[in-house]
Structure formats: structure tokens, C-alpha cells
Structure to design on (69 residues):
């Protein structure tokens, strides 16, 4: 399954359930600190920022995506 097919499938299943699908730019969603906005390179699954914020990098990505909606 390629990316277009996957997106089409997700849209189809979401439409069945009445869920709106929104596309966002993924750049830096896992690198930007949700607390202070600084970009940090992530070496492993743990995100650490100089401001003291730390979390799993997937949580960081999800929080930054949620901010764009
Ligand atoms: Zn920070």
C-alpha cells in the first residue's frame, strides 16, 4: 500500500464514522518543544529540551500537531 492508498483508506474509514480528516505539514512536529518552541534534535525516543521539558517524542509530535488544528 502506498501513501496515496493509505490516505484514501483513512479518509474513507473516517467518513464512515463522521470524522473530519485534516492534513498538516509534518516538518519539525517531533523536534519543536511544546513548552518553549525551541527545536531540538532527538537522538532516541526521549525528547529533552534545554528549558527542562521532556517527554516521549511521539507525545511531542502529537502535541505539536494538535496545536496546528
Ligand atoms: Zn523547551
Amino acid at each position: 500500500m502506498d501513501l496515496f492508498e493509505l490516505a484514501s483508506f483513512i479518509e474513507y474509514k473516517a467518513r464512515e464514522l463522521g470524522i473530519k480528516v485534516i492534513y498538516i505539514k509534518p516538518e519539525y512536529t517531533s523536534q519543536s518543544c511544546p513548552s518553549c518552541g525551541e527545536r531540538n534534535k532527538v537522538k532516541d525516543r526521549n525528547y529533552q529540551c534545554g528549558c527542562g521539558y521532556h517527554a516521549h517524542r511521539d507525545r511531542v509530535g502529537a502535541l505539536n500537531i494538535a496545536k496546528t488544528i
